[in-house]
User: Fold these one by one.
Assistant:
Number 1:
Amino acid sequence: MTDSKYFTTTKKGEIFELKAELNSDKKEKKKEAVKKVIASMTVGKDVSALFPDVVNCMQTDNLELKKLVYLYLMNYAKSQPDMAIMAVNTFVKDCEDLNPLIRALAVRTMGCIRVDKITEYLCEPLRKCLKDEDPYVRKTAAVCVAKLHDINAQLVEDQGFLDTLKDLISDSNPMVVANAVAALSEIAESHPNSNLLDLNPQTINKLLTALNECTEWGQIFILDCLASYLPRDDRESQSICERVTPRLSHANSAVVLSAVKVLMKFMEMLPKDLDYYGTLLKKLAPPLVTLLSAEPELQYVALRNINLIVQKRPEILKHEMKVFFVKYNDPIYVKLEKLDIMIRLASQANIAQVLAELKEYATEVDVDFVRKAVRAIGRCAIKVEQSAERCVSTLLDLIQTKVNYVVQEAIVVIKDIFRKYPNKYESVIATLCENLDSLDEPEARAAMIWIVGEYAERIDNADELLESFLEGFHDESTQVQLQLLTAIVKLFLKKPTETQELVQQVLSLATQDSDNPDLRDRGYIYWRLLSTDPVAAKEVVLAEKPLISEETDLIEPTLLEELICHIGTLASVYHKPPSAFVEGSRGVQHKRLPPRAGSGESTESPDVGQSGPSEAPPAVIPSQGDLLGDLLNLDLAPPTATVPSVQPSMQMGAMDLLGGGLDSLLGGDIGGSPSMGAGLGAAPAAMPASLGGAPAVGGGLGDLFDLGGGVGMPTGSYVAPKTVWLLAMKAKGLEISGTFARRGGIIQMDLSLTNKAMSVMTDFAIQFNRNSFGLAPAGPLQVLTPLSPNQTIDVSLPLSTSGPVMKMEPLNNLQVAVKNNIDVFYFSCQYPLSLLFVEDGKMDRQVFLATWKDIPNDNEAQFQIKDIHLNSDVASNKLQGSNIFTIAKRTVEGQDMLYQSVKLTNGIWVLAEMRIQTGNPNYTLSIKCRAPEVCPFVYQCYELVLKN
Amino acid sequence: MPVLDITLKDNALIMIHSLFLINNAGDLFLEKHWKSVISRSVCDYFFEAREKAVEPDNVPPVIRTPHHYLINIYREKIFFVSVIQTEVPPLFVIEFLHRVAETFQDYFGECSESTIKDNVVIVYELLEEMLDNGFPLATESNILKELIRPPTILRSMVNTITGSSNVGETLPTGQLSTIPWRRAGVKYTNNEAYFDVVEEIDAILDKSGTTVFAEIQGVIDACVKLSGMPDLTLSFMNPRLLDDVSFHPCVRYKRWESERVISFVPPDGNFQLMSYHISAQNLVAIPVYVKQNISFFETGSSGRLDITVGPKQTMGKTVEGLVVTVHMPKVVLSANLNATQGTYNYDPVTKILVWDIGKLNPQKLPNLKGSLSLQSGAPKPEENPSLNIDLKIQQLAISGLKVNRLDMYGEKYKPFKGVKYVTKAGKFQVRT
């Protein structure tokens, strides 16, 4: 008889029957009944109605029956809290059983029952089990602390379980140590600021010792924990690496990858000329290669990580190209990843081999893979200049196959090759033109149109070709329409005499018949440009294009560094920052690679004197916003293989237009046709009329030019002008710019929301991520009316500082999510610290003196404020406006010393001494604070206030 | 991250939240939750990906859903789909799932839907024992078998008669010793230790027979039935071949590093002592060559096939179990061939041609020749079919690896010792 008998049911009603059996006097019958209940559970049937009957079976000497009941309890206790309490007594009793198996089982099960009433009873047994003589019980109890912490963190702290857990790190049994580490690191994650896992050389040593002896899973926990440690110097780093290296030979691939993470991170600290550094590099290759002979699922994760490693340290795998060659029965997800890595490893030395492989792949069955292989050939051409010619001829061979999708991909990549090596391979254009009719994908059509437009002077029938596309203009995708518009304008500028009609046709199609604002705007701009100053138009539209870079899909370096610190995690599989996955701590503690010993690139002591407060944010934020914005679209598709194809180059064109002294156009003669260029004289009358008469359109154009954003408001403390935080192109048409202000003690976030999409936006809401000072919206985002296209709304959002706190990097970073009816968008911005300077920040003189002395000198930071032409009183007044209070002033030898205090919303005091020498525009500022990390930000505020 | 309900919650230490087992037909036949019950509707995302992938092999291992991640493996026609709610190392989960599949295999002889259903209670107990609140607890088969006894026909009969259970009543002895993989008090009347050196050649050969890529994946499987606490040392004639190795946790890595010997206290019974990898950079001997010509005609809806296999570097040994498999293009309807040795079979549904040759006779090379008929009117296939070769060579490790000697310390008796070598084809492909 097998267990499948438990699935059979009778007509009478299963639950009824089971109930009777559970209450049977016969032990054996009871056990069989519980097994039936469990069997039902495994197929997702709801048997919670039997709760009291099953719990009744709990008091038994039979270990198997007890286990089964426990299994049941874990599943259903949550939904039956009142019933679960019935089990408590048995639990408590079992925690004292002579058999360690039962003690461990009881404490383990109790921890899994997330019912408050049970939790209260758990404390005492848990305390005993943590100190149990049997290590099996201790290691089970260690995990239980983490479970309890998840249910009721306060209780765990009050009961002192955390300290007991810390003691277990020194336990004599390695498996207890491993579980304690696992539990502590989990708890530490929900408490980023707690010093739970206080990693110092002693604990590290203990961990390294336990590493050799504990189970494979424990090794993973320990290695992950080690990875978060920052060694004091390169010697410590080396000694840890030496002790971790043997893990590279472990049979468990997760252990191997965690070890790789530790090594990749700590290697950063080793001087490159060290012999050991080279040894380590050599040791890393074989285990990575071995991962590729594992099961395909493991291979996939390994490949995603190798992709990162190859970008960070290409030297490790540069001789291992062949292991990435694709086998025809690899799963598609493995094939695509291998291909990506092959391109990254391609170099002059191995390009011949790579190309031969790629050509082979281009004849495979799987369409996605074939496409990617064709693209890869293009990428090779762009990456390895010496191979470009071979790549082009390979692509031409492929075009000859006439396989539709191969031809289309080939044309897309050839366009990129033209961009990279101008005037070299244009001889193939004729071949490309032969395939014009077979192109049915937007990207390929757009690429072909770009080629025709760009080389219009060499293609005799360029006008005919483009005209043929124009016939179905409205059925084309936006990408193709935009491209066609530009290509025809190019053609017109190159061969004005024959193509007037064509250009008028496309301009009217774009501006009059299209609903797409992008297309309309671009059409109008060309029209104006051509009509006003054809020479300027030529300069703008036919300007020399910048060469495309060789590797466009590289991960941005700071993200790459962060991902290297997270090798082996989900973040590394998706190549997205960890903050993208997990709400809360782990995400936001941006991990950085440690600085290399002996090199100048120390991350400490940034040159604050140089960096203006305004310059940092714009550099970082757009890219970050970009990544965050992509979150919702996470999918497995690897980043598109090719280059800023047509779209970006066009955008650039548009930017040029804006800068090209067109402003006069806007203010001036919008209404009349007289200003139209001679060649365009017969422009349809409707168009100018609509321009003059429709303010909406004018407004749209106005927005385009108004890139600077709003104007600062002079009330209260200094308020910076609004800057763009969220670009419309990244947020489905929603553009957000904003700034922060403190007005009469109230913190406000001033936002301008602009709708650059075509449809109305409604249902706005805003939320902040946890941040350093607990900033949080004090009310909902008040956007009462729907935001129609091209409309901008200014809103002021009052903020409180009572939100959840978490230290951010940089300290004043704020991550914001804005939702509307379309989607959720993310961006980061940085606020001036002066936002948090409270009005009662004036310290008593005596207290100031005492505090100044009390704060250790190490906490003092010195800064230079340059080019300030204010005397000390004016400066002092200005600062007071931003709640920086001058407490005392002293004049020594022509030097004014101002003593100032600032209090932050969270009660931190900042003390400052500012020295002003008459005639010297450079002030010296010394800042002392118990939390020295705020000093540079306070300095930024000084500069901002004094300079504005 | 901002909290607009798309991100995962970071509140739990649960690594693997739930496990669903799904068969090839898409039936969900077992679920296990380690925390709260997660509705099986979460698997809809999996089904969606499953459908998109067409072939079960192509389902991506990590699937993102709005609130969870689904990490899955496909083994023995079963999808093991785990639900993850926190940022965990995916390899950790995948390794664990493989361990679950191996444990089922070990317990029930095979890992299939029917055996799992037949042993559902043991399966449940196993899963509970293997993972505590998301932490792997006991995954060593030696330990598990003491906690939960595997079913045997005899035991289930005895159990029903005597009412005894299949749950161990005492703590496994090995559970917390410094050698968790070995139980104490092992006793055998015949003490024996056997080692199998198994090497698989992974290779890609191009049209002309040149090696594009070749490497060797080797394992040493052990079957050790020795009493007491034996301490073994295995040494090789040519350990230098092994520069990329992975060991069972029982192997003392330090001694390997310093002396290039494998020193270990073995688990009881069958286990994999080590695996190794001999990379593409070393010269890998290719035991056979394949001369092939598969061509399709522009007109007439037909094609020709001509394959000959011959010995290349066999080190004087016989190649056995030779099988050639060809994945034909979709338009190939049937094959009319003549084999000088062995039998061939063309499956018009899967489009797979299998030629089972058997032993390779160097004097009379096997040949398969004939015509292929295509769907009429269909264009000439664009892709070139690849050949897959299967073979076996007894008493040879193709890398040349040789065991020197096996010594035992710590026990007094004299064990029987034996080493066997075998070479097989792994992923051995010939392009056309």
Number 2:
Amino acid sequence: MDYTASQKGFRQQPNVRLRNSSTDGFDGSQLFEDTSRSGSQTTPFRNQQSAPHDAGFSGQAILTDPMSNLAMAYGSSLASQGKEIMDKNLDRFIPISKLKYYFAVDTVYVGKKLGLLVFPYMHENWEVSYQQDTPVAPRFDVNAPDLYIPTMGFITYVLVAGLALGTQNRFSPELLGVQASSALVWLIMEVLAVLLSLYLVTINTDLTTIDLLAFSGYKYVGMIVGVVAGLMFGRPAYYLSLLWCCAAIFVFMIRTLRLKLLSEAAAEGRLVRGARNQLRMYLTMSIAAAQPVFMYWLTYHLIR
Amino acid sequence: MAFTLYSLIQTAILCTNAIAVLHEERFLSKRSGLDQGVSGFGDDPGIKAQVLNLIRSVRTVMRVPLIIVNSASIVLLLLFG
């Protein structure tokens, strides 16, 4: 009887998950699929299985001892209290809920975005789609910035740098840390410089600091492609692939930032005179031009 | 160029100190051009006014933390070289 009931519960799960994913597709405000319901439905089944086992072990009196029950209950309540305090305090310094948005990606998005970063010339619509004033999660819009690719790109860059140094017998484990902190410092300085220049030119944009961090992190993809090509095929391949990726990231940045930084009229391509619009154009161009410079600066010492 | 996070902290402390030691009377007031133009509510304050605003606000905000950070770094550098 018990078995059939849990079996029915088990069979109900795929429907529940399907319903969840369809609302996810419509709703969009849900960043991640809710797998908690399916998880809680499997655990009663497992508990029923484990309970007869425990009663079977008559030698194990520890779980039936009321004192240890009390200790377990107290310990778990203490743990949950500590977790609550940690979450509350951490949320004040690092906005975790905002960060979750940038990591709501899936494989299709990552594939399309990587393709865009290397070949942005055919893509036509660069606007980020919104859903009632909040930007749509990156999973549903290929133009939205994310932090997954920059983070993975950074880590891969450090590893590939170690690999490149190793093939030239210049490797030591401290160098990995040096490369990582060096690249991180350059990234921070670039983001601060962009923030400062955005403040000085008084551009009112909805670009957040994390967006700028994401855009500055996209160049790691091109750097990795260049270094790997240089490792496999020698210096000419490194220069060629770096040139291609520099041009690609230049076009990508210009087309993405154009919609965010320039005024409406200028973004559509009409020629708008005026000192401010010119300044904005120069700012967009210099942000985009800084990317190839950094890409070369951070990789040329790896290929000798 | 091997930058470390420590050198970034050093740079930040030195730059903030440099901004904090600028003299208000002799230097900053002379640079602000026409003060009425600076404090207007127009939507285009101009780069010079923005820079001066930034310098003034950094000085106001970072005065006390800079004292603390400078004292701490002096003590640490004396102790640990």
